[in-house]
C-alpha cells in the first residue's frame, strides 16, 4: 500500500476553492482538507511531504502533441532557432560532423521557420541549399509546423521525383518548382507524409530511447498526461510500433499517462486499424489509465505559416491562394461515419476557417439526437468567425486549443487575413463564455511542450519575449483558473475521463504537482518561468527537483 500526505500547501480544488492538505492512497486521492483532517487519516506507513506553503495543482494534461517527435527532435540537428537558410545549413553540417553514425543513412530535422529569419534573409530552403550539407545521403528538413519540408537531391533521387513528376503527384499535397520548372525539393501537406520514409525510421530500440527522453522532459515541466499523435503520422500503425509503447508500460519505465491519437489518412488505413489494434482495445484495461487507445486523428488542412491553412477567402498577401484541402470531403465523411459506426472518436487538425467549417459539417452527420456523444473534436481551430463558433456550439464539437501559437501567429496573421477574422480567432475566452468544451495542448514539438509557456500566452495574450506591451486580442485573455482547468479537467473531458482525472478531489487519480511559484498570485508575466518542484502521477513521484 502506498500512502502520501501533502501538508501545509495551497491546494487548488476548483475556482475560488483552495485547501491545505491532500492524502493519496494507492494512486487515488483519498481526502482533501486541512492539515488536521489529513493527519488523522495517516498511519506509520504514510509518507508526509511538507509543501511549505507552496501551490499544488492537478497534473497538467496536454490534449494534443507528438511525444515521439519530441524525443526525435532532441536527437536531431537543432534547427529550431536558426536565423536563415544559411544558418540552418551550417547547423546541419556541424551536427553531421559530430554525429556521423546518426546521419549515415539519412538526416531528418524539424523546426525551421522562415517567418523568424533575419530581415533580408526570409526565404524557403531548397534542394540546392540542402545539397551543401550532403549529396551522399537523403536529407529532409521539416518546417516547424510539419506541413512543408525541403529535400536534398539524394532524397529526390531515392523517391523517384524528377522534373517530369506532376506537381500534384501526391494527393492533397504539392511538389514545388523553381521558376525555370526544375523541381526545387520543397513539398507541402500530404506530400510531406508520403516522402517521410526517405529517411529511414527509427528502430524500436531508438523509439524506446526517444520516448523515454521525451517523457523525462515533459514530466520535468509539469505534464502528467499527454494525448499524442505518433503512429500513423510519423510511423505506421503496425503491431510492432504499438508494442513499443506497451513494453514501456509493462516494464514500469513510463513516467506519464499516454493516450494514442491514431492517424489514418485513407479508408484502407482506418479499416486496418479497426480490424487490428482497435479490435484489441480491451487489452489496454490492464494499464489502469496509464496507457489508453484514443481517437482517429485526421488532417483537413495545413498551417498559417506555410499558407496552406484552408480558407474561405484568399490570403491577403497571396491573392488566389485559399490553402490546401488535405482530406477530400467525401473521404472525410466516410472516415467519420465509419469511426462513429465503431464507437471511435474523431479529432481533426483544422486551422483555416473553411477547414473548420467542413470538419464541423462532417461531425454533424454523426450526431446522435443532436448530441456529440463521441466528443469529436477540432484540433487547433485557429481561424474562426463568430458564426463559425456558433456552429461549433450548436453541434457540441470540442476544441483542442494551443494558445502558445499566438506568440508567433499574431504577427503572421496581420499580413495574411482581414482584421475582422483575426479579431475572432484563437478565441479562448469567447468559447468558455459560450459553454464550448476547450482543452489546451502545445502540438509539441511545433511549440515547446512546457505547459507554463502555454498558460502564460492564454492569460496574457503576449508573445514569449516578455517585451510585447499590448495583449493581442485582449478580450480573449482568460484567468489563471480557466487556463489550468483547460489543461486539466477539459483535457480529461476530451478523453472521457473527467469523472476521475483533472481535479484534486477524492476518487480522482493522484496526479498532481507542487509549483515553485504561486501561479495564482504572481505577476502574470512571470507564469512563463514557473516550474514544478515535485510531480506525482498515479501516486508515484516521477520528478523531484
CATH class of the largest domain: Alpha Beta
CATH topology of the largest domain: TIM Barrel
Q: Number of folding domains?
A: 2
| Mean pLDDT rating | 96
What does this protein look like?
- It is a single chain.
- By secondary structure, the protein is of the alpha/beta class.
- It folds into two domains: 84-198, Diaminopimelate Epimerase, Chain A, domain 1 (Roll), CATH 3.10.310.70; 204-494, TIM Barrel (Alpha-Beta Barrel), CATH 3.20.20.
- The chain is 31% helix and 22% strand.
- It contains 19 helices and 23 strands.
- The strands form four sheets. Strands 8-14-15-16-17-18-19-20 form an eight-stranded parallel β-sheet. A six-stranded mixed β-sheet has the order 3-2-7-21-22-23. Strands 9-10-11-13-12 form a five-stranded mixed β-sheet.
- α10 (267-275) links the parallel β15 (257-263) and β16 (291-299).
- The model has no long low-confidence stretch (mean pLDDT 96).
Describe the secondary structure blueprint for this structure:
Blueprint: E1 3-7, E2 10-14, E3 17-19, E4 21-25, E5 28-33, H1 35-39, E6 47-50, E7 55-58, E8 60-65, H2 67-73, H3 85-98, H4 100-103, E9 107-112, H5 127-131, E10 139-143, E11 148-151, H6 153-159, E12 173-177, E13 183-189, H7 190-195, H8 204-220, E14 223-228, H9 239-250, E15 257-263, H10 267-275, E16 291-299, H11 329-341, E17 346-350, H12 353-364, E18 377-380, H13 386-395, E19 398-401, H14 406-416, H15 419-423, H16 428-433, E20 438-440, H17 451-460, H18 480-487, H19 489-494, E21 512-515, E22 532-537, E23 540-544
Parallel strand pairs: 1-6, 2-7, 8-14, 9-10, 14-15, 15-16, 16-17, 17-18, 18-19, 19-20
Antiparallel strand pairs: 1-4, 2-3, 4-5, 7-21, 10-11, 11-13, 12-13, 21-22, 22-23
Helix pairs in contact: 2-8, 8-9, 11-12, 12-13, 17-18
